[in-house]
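User: Hey, my collaborator sent me this sequence without any context and asked if I could get a structure. I don't really work with proteins. Can you help?
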Amino acid sequence: MTIAKRSILTALTTCAILFAPVPDCLAGDPTNAPSTKAPDMSNGADNFYKSDKVTVEKVTFKNKLNMKVVGNLFVPKALDRSLKSPAIIVGHPMGAVKEQSANLYATKLAERGFVTLSFDLSFWGESEGQPRHTVAPDIYVDDFSAAVDFLGRQPLVNRDRIGVLGICGSGSFSIAAAQIDPRLKAVATVSMYDMGAANRDGLKKSTTAKQRKKVLEEAAAQRWAEADGGAAKYTSGTVHEINEKSHPIEREFFDFYRTSRGEFTPASTTPLLTTHPTLSSNVAFLNFYPFERIAEVSPRPMLFVTGDSAHSKEFSEDAYKRAAEPKELVVVPGAGHVDLYDRVNLIPFDKLTTFFTDKLK
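Assistant: No problem. I've predicted the 3D structure and written it out in structure-token form, which is a compact way to encode the shape of the chain:
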């Protein structure tokens, strides 16, 4: 197993989690753990938050391909179980797992009275799917509808009052799901990435046609290699070391995924491979257009939350522009992209609570 080399320029166009290869000194050695650099725990960074006001149950359900999806069901201890309650599905960042950001949001919203469900996308974390870390946007999208299937059959849940919250890449998957699944009654995104546009065009449309063709050629060559019995290669993802020359976005993601602030390695992978999609499958994102029919989500409400200094801000602004009413764009002062993964002093939980309370009536 190796991580495919990319220049920073090319890598910046291809992934929402972080945009550079693992250094050669780590390639092929899955026993190497991420750096132990001290994390930045400012602004209440609390990714692994637990609550004594909420019960948590591991659950499983099947998507349309009969693949097992694994999640966590959060229920407020004070919930009136004689009533059917509203529920919220929470999707994790692309390349992450439910233990990274999604569980935090699900816990905090459960404290505020909602039944919530976080889950691992297919091919990631505890959910089924081979090869691991495969990029399959259509299956990711169906995972959200499968989560609706699951929640709607729970005795505690009102199946007509189910909403969705997508973080980073899951923002685009949840929007795509809402376009074809009217059972999702309210849609919110946080630090949302359009995974299609990010891979086709790069940040601020910096990717050239020549660069796109090179990416396709690399993926095609890797498909031949795997067809001939070669080992998988992995791409993009978060770097495993930083130095004085590291890009600010590299540093931003490294501080979450490669330190104790947010590092989590599921049993299905190794520290070397966390966040990295397979090289041969990542090009599937080039055919992913999650905003194509976003206006048709209306009259169901949409909320887009982004940081004022987030490198991903352009995607929330684009989605907001394309969406029809009712819609709202919330820009959080002093927040970058990854800040809204876990910094509870910056995450607008009050706004999210008001949105889902009002819109899931």
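In plain terms: Strands lie at 2-3, 54-62, 68-76, 85-91, 115-119, 157-167, 184-190, 233-234, 302-307, 327-332. You can pass these tokens on to your collaborator as they are.
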